[in-house]
Amino acid sequence: MPKCALLAILLVTTMATGQTAQNDAHQRFAALRDAYLAKFKPLFLESETAWWEANITGADAAYARKTAADQALVDLHSDHAVFAQLKELKEAGGVTDPTLRRELDVVYRSFLAGQADPQLQKQIVALENDVEQIFNTHRSPVGDKILTENEVRDILANSTKSADVEAAWKGYMEVGRKADEKLRRLVQLRNEKARQLGFPDFFTLSLALQEIDQAELFKLFDELDALTREPFAQLKADLDKERAARFGIPVAELRPWHFGDLFFQEAPASTEVDLDGLFKDADLLALSKTYYASIGLPANDILARSDLYEKPGKCPHAFCSDLDRAGDIRVLANLQPNIYWANTILHELGHGVYDKYIHPDVPFLLRTASHGITTEGIAELFGALVKNEEWLQQVLGLDADTVARIGPAVRKSLRTERLMFSRWAQVMLRFEQGMYTKPDQDLGRLWWDLKQRYQLLSPPESVARPDYAAKVHVLTTPVYYHNYMMGELFAAQVRHALAREVGGKLDAQRTSFYDHPQVGAFLRDKVFGPGNLYAWHDLTQRATGEPLTARYFAADLAAK
């Protein structure tokens, strides 16, 4: 046989063998995935449904159902034999189909997190559910009254009496004392879980599971610190003068309760314009429906399934939940006619339309947002519209003269909000890193040292307080808060892309995109539709044409 003919036969044989091996890998993973889904889907549905019921009722039975489903999920993801097969397939590289490869990666990371001791993981789940119940049922003792979180927020935002805001703030912080012991136990258990999986601590494990490089994350946050340090110091100095005058005290006597918010993460009420007053007669549901429909993302069906007003036992916060990844998307809120809840409902519906418009052909495992960064970014993009002049005129219905008069104050409020949040996010990221890497340190001192450094806040009379444990995210959504800030960066980048590519070179800082259905088309195609087919950094590149950057966020801060 001629040499060239022999080589051709060998090449064809090698290609056929490689194709056979690839097909075998695809078939092996597909079989593993289908067997996994048969068990995962009903448990997922039970957990989500029970969680919804627990949050709207506070009922012990619902929490028990959720705990049982979550513990069954722990058992499912603890299967060492299945994980070994997933690991083998992943490391061999034989699964080359892009969708299958992404599914494999998602399932692999789900099982990686579950390879620790099952009993340890069940302890964590049970504690997390206990903590959720503590926060959902907490009411703040203030004087001779027991107040809801909304009532505490109202005092902080509107009172001019130092004694009243101090009592309200400290009353809410009592939830930290209730939760502190459980938090410390959670830190121990989470760190033990990380060590069992080969990571030094839970912080490092969490970032790996989120597809975030730790060095790059801190490089980004150090850059943000440098960008915002000086403008924030100027803003804080001006704010100190305003708040001291408001309460009739020297600047040196200002304390955390004087700044209108529980954690100084949101801008205090403007002294130049009554932002809450703009919404006192507003129908927040009608406004939300009108706006989302105008950009080609109608959300009426989401609102029809939602639970939107206060009632006993109900979670006092807000969230959006996709209960079945098939259209049963709901928002929990406690609406009041003010700017906080106007922002919140637009924000949560941002999550909702993201989930709603994931393409139905995307496989169940990938029928979620690409990442917390992308879904939080979209939510922030829409929530911020309550401080957008075009939106106030076109959607809320203010007249042009009123908008022109209040416009500078509204823009200032939005800039203040973004600057403040960028500093607050620094506290959360660095506190959680410190808590998990050195859990035996004085956490109260760490908390207040960080708040002094990044937020320029003077601490209470004593830093030996578990105020850190009053922030629910620290307990129930650990090592996640950085995603909110990265989401702000994503929002700024998408906003500029929309203004450039959809709106005909609109002013990215000023436009509300109202009545631009092309916005919905762009988001459905570039951001929502793919679901989790792509990792967040790939999705960012595909949607905006470049990797995630802080340039657009900084540009928005600099805009006048």
Task: Outline the structure in words.
Helix content is 66%, strand content 2%. By secondary structure, it is mostly helical. A hairpin with a 2-residue loop joins β1 (140-142) and β2 (145-147). The longest helix has 55 residues, at 3-57. The protein is globular. The N and C termini lie far apart (80 Å). The relative contact order is 0.10. The model has no long low-confidence stretch (mean pLDDT 93).
List keywords for this structure.
560 residues, two-stranded antiparallel sheet, 2% strand, 22 helices, mainly alpha, globular
Report low-confidence residues grouped into runs of 5 or more: none
- Largest sheet descriptor: 2 strands, antiparallel
- Terminal-residue CA separation: 80 Å
What shape does the CA trace take?
Answer: globular
- Mind telling me the C-alpha Rg? 25 Å
Strand order of the largest sheet: 1-2
Number of helical runs?
Answer: 22
What percent of residues are in strands?
A: under 5%
Helix content: 55-70%
**Total strand count, please?**
4
Class of secondary structure makeup:
mainly alpha
